[in-house]
From TrEMBL:
SUPFAM superfamilies: Band 7/SPFH domain. Residues 1-20 are annotated as: Disordered. One of its GO terms (cellular component) is plasma membrane. Belongs to the band 7/mec-2 family. It comes from Magallana gigas. Residues 1-16 have a biased composition (Polar residues). This is Band 7 domain-containing protein. It holds the Pfam family Band_7. Keywords: Membrane, Transmembrane, Transmembrane helix. It is found in: Membrane.
Amino acid sequence: MHSGSTGKVHPSQGQEQHTEQDGDIGCCGYILMAFSYVLVALFFPLSLCLTIKVVQEYERAVIFRLGRVLPGGAKGPGLFFILPCIDDFKKTDMRTLTYDVPPQEILTKDSVTVAVDAVIYIRIFDATMATVNVSDAYQSTRLLAATTLRNVLGTRLMAELLTDRESIASNMKVQLDEATDPWGVKVERVEIKDVRLPIQLQRAMAAEAEASREARAKIVAAEGEQKASRALKEAADVMMESPAAIQLRYLQTLNSIAAEKNSTIIFPLPIDVMATFMKK
């Protein structure tokens, strides 16, 4: 039995066929191309000023011939050749650029209005896609970043905006990178620049923090008094076991009072004389 073809076309073959069809400029196009070559030959070497172009190391040039992109992708860096009258080209900067996302008024998940601004780092990885698929790749990415910022932060609590910025920025980067991939734009990094809270909320948070600090200070003071009371109790128990220790403590107290204040102090000696009065 003869096995027939499955009818499937390999993606690369379909892409080549599509490129060949797109690259066909027609009979009039070939006539104009031949005419351009004739002009270049007639006015050589003056025509070299119009036919030879240069792009820098960080640039790429997308060449259009009669409105169609030339096969082979963007040209550069260095020299490349165009035909006068029928060829046009557009340069694209391939360096990483930084853009500030304007401050966005966002209502968080817990109904708090905050103003958030961010910074995005983007670069073009495919000059042809960035030129053909979108009118202004950088401006479109900036507008999309502002929208994505509102969408992402609208699902977060206010406390998360202050403590979990790295996770929010990572989430934004993933969403932006997926959306800008058909434009030939790579989002390398997203940073949450600033989160501005309402003044009333700032005052409430400051009062809450101050109350928390005061509560911790009182707890520490109470723990210190508790430890001091236990130490005094243990010292009193030791003195009760040894009467001589109590007399030495009396003498130490007398020495401290005499050193701090210049006054006359009557202290009974021997100290045992006070024991009779203490019993009564």
